[in-house]
Amino acid sequence: MTVRRAVAISLYFLISFAPHPLKAQEAQEMAADLERGKRIYRSVGYCGNCHGWPGDGRTGRLLQAPEAPSLRESELDTETLIEVVKCGIPGTAMPYHGRTAYLDGSCYGGMELSDFEQGTAPPLGKTFGDSDVFNVVAYLEAYVIGRKEPTIEECTEFFGNPNARACRKLK
């Protein structure tokens, strides 16, 4: 294992345990727009392709998309969620979405894409600004994380239509 790969793997495990006080302060200063966060999750970041519309990692996800963990079962704190959405997860299919990711020193202790060995950098997803990264995380914390099995009410709220094809299986 090369040094760069070992660093990337170490950083992956550290994101769940290392606090990020500056990011927490920045997040508290931003006003969350939960509707915008839902739109970003659904239509801009295409998060549901892998995580499913309810974030459970299976319901409504695209079959050809990489499997993703259940966000409903996530125990990550706000700061870590922000970093994961912005910076992706090295060595996995989780893409980075932050417009300034790996350019502004905010990803995993200042890593740049050139620090990764070929094939270990997070893939590039559809990018958006820091305020939308925060909006997605706020949406997840308000409507997804900690929830049990998806319900017809959640599906109706997500799609705005109780007769949406995705909701039929929940009736």
Helicity, as a percent range: 40-55%
Q: Number of DSSP strands?
A: 2
Radius of gyration: 16 Å
CATH architecture designation:
Orthogonal Bundle
Overall tally of domains = 1
Structural description of this entry:
The chain starts with a helix and ends with a helix. It is 42% helix and 5% strand. Helix 3 (34-44) crosses helix 6. The model is unreliable at 1-22 (pLDDT under 50). It is globular. It has a single domain, classed as Cytochrome Bc1 Complex, Chain D, domain 2. The protein is mainly alpha-helical and 171 residues long. Strands 1-2 form a two-stranded parallel ribbon. It contains eight helices and two strands. It has helices spanning 3-14, 21-29, 34-44, 48-51, 78-87, 130-143, 152-159, 165-168; strands at 96-98, 124-128.
Summarize this entry quickly.
The protein has 171 residues and is mainly α. It is built from 8 helices and 2 strands, in the order H-H-H-H-H-E-E-H-H-H.
What distinguishing features does this structure have?
globular, disordered N terminus, 171 residues, Cytochrome Bc1 Complex, Chain D, domain 2, two-stranded parallel sheet, 2 strands, mainly alpha
What layout of secondary structure does this protein have?
Layout: H1 3-14, H2 21-29, H3 34-44, H4 48-51, H5 78-87, E1 96-98, E2 124-128, H6 130-143, H7 152-159, H8 165-168
Parallel strand pairs: 1-2
Helix pairs in contact: 3-6, 5-6
